[in-house]
Design brief:
There is one protein chain. The protein is α/β, with parallel strands linked by helices. It contains 2 helices and 10 strands. The strands form 4 sheets. It has a 3-stranded mixed sheet with strand order 2-5-3, covered by helices on one side.
């Protein structure tokens, strides 16, 4: 007897695996990073509709969330060098001027979030410039 294949795209991978296995399917899952699909959710499913029979294979691609990248240390670099370092690490950059004690005018004071913080690739980092 044919079994209806439910589509779990955008839903919990754990739930999808349990329910598809309970329906009689064999489930395999791979993981990929995604900037748009939250970690643990199904990004894609093959096949994702129609009917199958007991034991048929269904493949899920599960999101690992975005690639996480450490914010580089830019303190003491020129504004241009600091911006380039942040951009090459995969970040968007906004600049905030601050009144800093002891750093020369135009040099990077730090970042928000701070250097070493793990954030999603493509995040916007505030470059704090004296």
């Amino acid at each position: 007897t044919p079994i209806t294949i439910a589509n779990y795209e955008g839903k919990s991978a754990d739930q999808a695996t349990k329910e598809l296995q309970a329906a009689g399917f064999t489930v395999t899952a791979t993981q990929q990073n995604s900037k748009t699909v939250a970690a643990g959710l199904v990004m894609s499913q093959s096949p994702n509709n129609g009917t199958g029979k007991k034991g048929d294979a269904i493949t899920l691609v599960v999101s690992k969330g975005p690639v996480m990248v450490a914010v580089p240390t830019v303190r003491g670099k020129s504004k241009a060098d600091a911006t380039a370092a942040l951009q090459s690490a995969g970040f968007q950059v906004t600049t905030k001027s601050i009144v800093s004690g002891g750093l020369a005018f135009g040099l990077a004071y730090g970042t928000d979030p701070a250097a070493g913080t793990m954030v999603a690739e493509g995040s916007t980092i505030s470059l704090l410039v004296g």
